[in-house]
Structures are given as C-alpha cells and as structure tokens.
Design goal:
Helix content is about 10%, strand content about 45%. It is mainly beta. Strands 1, 2, 3, 4, 5, 6, 7, 8, 9, 10, 11, 12, 13 and 14 form a 14-stranded antiparallel sheet that branches. Strands 15, 16, 17, 18, 19, 20, 21, 22, 23 and 24 form a ten-stranded antiparallel sheet that branches. Strand 1 and strand 2 form a beta hairpin. The N terminus is likely disordered. It binds 2-acetamido-2-deoxy-beta-D-glucopyranose (NAG) (9 copies).
Length: about 375
C-alpha cells in the first residue's frame, strides 16, 4: 500500500496528465451529461425513421451459437465525492449448451477503471442466464448480473444490478436514454464480418445510482455522468475481430466508428455520427487506424495498443486521435478468462478535427482480436 499522501499526490498528477491531454478542462467536468431531456422513445427518428422497432427487439432471442446478442453499458461517472470512474457492464445471451437447448454460450462481465488512482478490475464470466424476461426486457445471471427495463417499452429506463464478487465490485445504476438513438449505418443494420447484423445505441443516457469497488461505496452525480448503452444482435460473430470506437465529443456529437475485416478479406470501415439535433450521418473511414503505444498484458501476454488515429473520408479530411492516458504503464482495459480469450475496452480521450472544427471528447477503444 502507498502511504495516503503519496496516493493523493499520484492522483493529482494523474489528473494533471488528463487535463493536459484535454487542454484546459477542470477535473470536475471531464464528461458531460445528456444535453437533451427528451425520452428517446419520443424522438421522431426513433419512431418514424427508417429503422426497426427498438422496443420489440430488446429481448429477441437468436438461433446461432456463433451469434451475438449483446447489451453493453458503458458509464463515465463523476461521483458526489468528485472521483472519476469508467464502469462497463455487459451481457451476451446466445444458445450453445448441450443440444442447443440452453444458453451455455452466454456470458456477462464488467470492467472498472478509476482515473484518479489508475486502478483497474475486470471480470468475464461464462454462464447460463437464470431468467430472460417474457413481458419486459430482463436478463439475469443469478445474483451476479441483472439488466432489466423499468418501463413497458423496454427502453425508457433500464437498470443494471451487478455483484461481481471476484472483482470486489457491485453496481446498482439506472439509465434513461435521451434524445435520438444512434443507428449504426443510419438504419441500424450493417455488414459485420460475414452477415448483416443489427446495432443501435443510446449514446447519451441520464445516469443515477451507486456502486461499490474494493469496499468503498460511491454515489453517481447525474449532472456529471453519462451512459452509452449499446445494443447489438445477429446470427454471426466476425471471425477476424474488430475495432470499435464510440466517440463522445464535448460539442454533443456522438460517433460510432467500426473497423471490421470481413470474412471475404475486404475491410469495412465506417462511422455513424449522431448530431444533437437528431441528424444521423454515415461517413467512410480509412481502415488504417495507425495503432501505436503498444503494451503487453501481464495476465494474458496479449498485445494491445494505447493510441489510434482515425481518418474520416469526408470532404473535410476529419481526423480524430484516440489516446488512452498512461495505458502503457497502467495496463487497463483487458477482460479475459485466461489466455484463450480476451478483449480490451480501454478508457480513451479523443481530440482532433471534425468537419473543420477542432474537437475533443472521451470514450473507449474496443480491441477485439480475431478468433
Ligand atoms: C413497437 O412495437 C410495440 C409492440 O411491441 C408497439 O406497441 C409500438 O407502438 C411500436 N413502436 C413503434 C415506434 O412502432
Ligand atoms: C418488451 O419485450 C418483451 C419481451 O421480453 C416483448 O414481449 C414486448 O412486446 C416488448 N414491449 C414492446 C412495447 O415492444
Ligand atoms: C447447435 O446449433 C448450431 C447452429 O444452428 C448447429 O450448427 C449445431 O449443429 C447445433 N448443435 C447441436 C448439438 O445440436
Ligand atoms: C481493487 O483491489 C484490487 C486488489 O487490491 C486491485 O488490484 C484493483 O486494482 C482494485 N480495483 C480498483 C478499480 O480500484
Ligand atoms: C462468488 O460467489 C459465488 C456464489 O455466488 C461463489 O461460488 C464464488 O466462490 C464467489 N467468488 C469469490 C471470489 O468470492
Ligand atoms: C437498487 O437501487 C434502487 C434505487 O435506489 C433500490 O430501490 C433497489 O433496492 C436497489 N437494489 C439492490 C439490489 O440493491
Ligand atoms: C474487497 O476490498 C476490501 C477493501 O480493499 C477488502 O477489505 C475486502 O476484503 C475485499 N473483499 C474481497 C472479497 O476481496
Ligand atoms: C509472450 O508472447 C510472446 C510472443 O508474442 C512470446 O515470445 C513469449 O514467450 C510469451 N511469454 C510468455 C510468458 O508466455
Ligand atoms: C491531439 O492532441 C495531441 C496532444 O495530446 C496532439 O499531439 C495531436 O496533434 C492532437 N491531434 C489532432 C488530430 O489534433
């Protein structure tokens, strides 16, 4: 254990580093809550846009053991004590048990990162859901993880209750999607490795709740916290892996960027931007995202990268850098169960130019290696 004073000095210098990367921000407004107060289900693009019905697809079951049926909840939290955390909880419900009769291929897990201390914890647990809702969205893995809708539309208010005792982490948060949803590719259907799949997000959800890590309970400050909820399902998972960059800019623009090698050998790289006025725009991306700042996981001996440069093939030559501060020394973001499988969702700061304007923001970079 570090003496307390040394700890807080280190925390101060880490805050300084983060402020340095962002320019002249104070550490109290690292990230911003949703600007809109409109429930997403009332948004015109959600109700009358060229998209599927998000409510009725929330608890859909897929047939393929090699598919994806994912609820990913990324939360950028400022606590009432002015501490900063990135909390990710996720589940995937697919068939795959004996005779395909159960959900034996399913999994759930969490990633917890403290910006102030640099500490990181994660769990990735295979298992079978103990309950899947019939009337409302509800996915439960015993006492460990539960995602459920508090409203009949399956979307206006969703709660995550988790207790990952292996990580000494428990969570009880609720998020409310605000403003338009982001539909990847504009319609929420896109080519994902080998087949079309479906993916939409609430990239700006109002967030409340509490969580406990390593014995300390923290209270979410909703005015300085936000959730990106990502929902995706389809009958196949890409065998060649992917990079996914959910970019949240301070000017309110949200950009979901995919770089996907396809099974046919081609590379698909595109970004879907959601503007605060609800407009959605799909932009091609240079698939060479220039990874740098290499680091090797002490847990799995896998190689990950801490920085990327995303060049958008738009008329402005927009470029956004992804930089995970101190990741080469702190080594945060990996979730695995042994060396056979791992992925990496590292907290990331973004900066660059978008449509001729200088921008900065926050998010993660997801690195998902080939199977
Ligand atoms: C979505 O489907 C539900 C029934 O499952 C229906 O009540 C609702 O009106 C539909 N929403 C839209 C926007 O069509
Ligand atoms: C919510 O999800 C359930 C499945 O759990 C489904 O039966 C119901 O129709 C959905 N509600 C709406 C409004 O679509
Ligand atoms: C499980 O389902 C997959 C995909 O539908 C199929 O290829 C496989 O043969 C099934 N396995 C069993 C044991 O039924
Ligand atoms: C929790 O405690 C464990 C064991 O001391 C440590 O390795 C980990 O970094 C801590 N996690 C967080 C998020 O503080
Ligand atoms: C976590 O709890 C489960 C039962 O709920 C138990 O089987 C497991 O051993 C516990 N793990 C740890 C690390 O305490
Ligand atoms: C989660 O928080 C809600 C709202 O504060 C509370 O009603 C509920 O009892 C909590 N659930 C658990 C399992 O702690
Ligand atoms: C959780 O963390 C606290 C504080 O570090 C510690 O006292 C407790 O023993 C830990 N519990 C487990 C199950 O690791
Ligand atoms: C780690 O991986 C490298 C190759 O990437 C290999 O040379 C090295 O032996 C591995 N180390 C361990 C401890 O497995
Ligand atoms: C992003 O910020 C870094 C400094 O942290 C700077 O070196 C880089 O040029 C900036 N990138 C862009 C595209 O503006």
């Amino acid at each position: 254990m570090f003496p307390k004073t040394l700890c807080s000095l280190w925390a101060l210098s880490s805050c300084h580093l983060i402020i340095g990367a962002q320019g002249h921000k104070t550490d109290n407004d690292l990230w911003l809550p949703p600007a809109s107060t409109e429930p997403s289900i009332k948004n015109p693009y959600v109700t009358s846009g060229p998209t599927y019905n998000v409510s009725s697809h929330q608890a859909i079951r897929i047939q393929s053991t090699t598919g994806v049926n994912s609820h990913w909840v990324g939360q950028w939290i400022t606590t009432t004590e002015n501490l900063h955390f990135v909390l990710i909880s996720f589940s995937d419900v697919i068939p795959g048990g004996p005779g395909n009769s159960t959900d034996g291929g399913s999994a759930n897990g969490c990633l917890v990162y403290s910006l102030d201390s640099g500490s990181f914890s994660s769990s990735f647990v295979s298992g079978t859901p103990t309950a899947v809702g019939q009337d409302r969205l509800k996915i439960q893995f015993g006492e460990q993880y539960e995602l459920h809708s508090l409203t009949d539309d399956n979307i206006s208010e969703i709660s995550v209750i988790a207790n990952f005792n292996g990580s000494n982490f428990s969570l009880n948060t609720t998020f409310q999607p605000r403003g338009s949803l982001l539909f990847n590719g504009g319609s929420g259907s896109f080519y994902w490795g080998s087949v079309f799949n479906h993916g939409w997000a609430s990239p700006a959800s109002y967030t409340t709740g509490t969580f406990t890590i390593n014995g300390t309970t923290h209270i979410v400050d909703p005015k300085r916290s936000t959730t990106w909820y990502d929902r995706q399902w389809g009958e196949e998972n890409p065998m060649q892996g992917w990079h996914w960059l959910p970019i949240q800019l301070e000017n309110g623009i949200r950009i979901s960027t995919w770089v996907l090698p396809t099974e046919q050998g081609a590379l698909k790289a595109f970004a879907t931007a959601l503007y605060p006025n609800g407009e959605q725009e799909v932009v091609s991306v240079n698939p060479d995202i220039k990874p740098s700042d290499v680091w090797v996981s002490p847990n799995t001996n896998r190689t990950w990268y801490g920085s990327f440069e995303v060049s958008f093939l738009d008329e402005y030559n927009s470029v956004i850098m992804a930089i995970s501060p101190d990741v080469t020394s702190r080594k945060f973001g990996e979730a695995s169960f042994g060396s056979a499988f791992a992925f990496c969702d590292s907290f990331t700061l973004y900066n660059g130019t978008w449509k001729g304007e200088s921008v900065r923001g926050w998010g993660i970079v997801e690195q998902w290696p080939a199977a």
